[in-house]
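Memo to structure team: turn this sequence into structure tokens by end of day. - J.P.
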Amino acid sequence: MDDVYVDIRNVTMSDLPGLYRVCLKTGDSGNDASGIYENPSLLGEIYVGPYVYFNSDSSFALVDDTEVVGYSLSTLDTLKFQESCATQWWPKIQRQYKDPNTDKRDRWTADNHLEYEIFHPTPSPNEVLEKYPSHAHIDLLPHVQGKGWGKKMMNAIDDALISLGSPGVHLRVSHVNYRALGFYERLGYPEIARRGNEVIVGKIFA
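Reply from structure team:
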């Protein structure tokens, strides 16, 4: 991989298939989730698509000669982003799925849990938004990890958000994704809150 051209650029809507693929291949707390979900697009519909649709100015693709191999996605104003999703993104996506019956939750498949998220999206915690109104997330395929690209992708987000006037950014991470939590800690994103199975990390832009 060291001999292959790799570059960072802003995402475009034409990147969605590649971005969705990366999301699936890293969707199990950083590991491949292909064997978990029957519908390979579900994770991407939730965790990738709206950022590309609304915030391509602060979201980036990591690309090599042939495909997308990673992304770092962010939005300047989390509350505005959630409102935009509620009126413009989720209604479009909801037409493709059914809201699973909560009376049968004990029999839900992994897909059903994501389908529920499409109809009942989990917002970022309000208590962190005053200091950290922006939010982001990042995923890289294994073969480009450990080569400095993750840091460069996070720097791209930081620079974009700072240029847009953000005072701070937060990220929501699975409590068992220890590799990601260590990565964020090293880059200056310490834990700022916990909610259920999520750890919230963040950075203040001085």
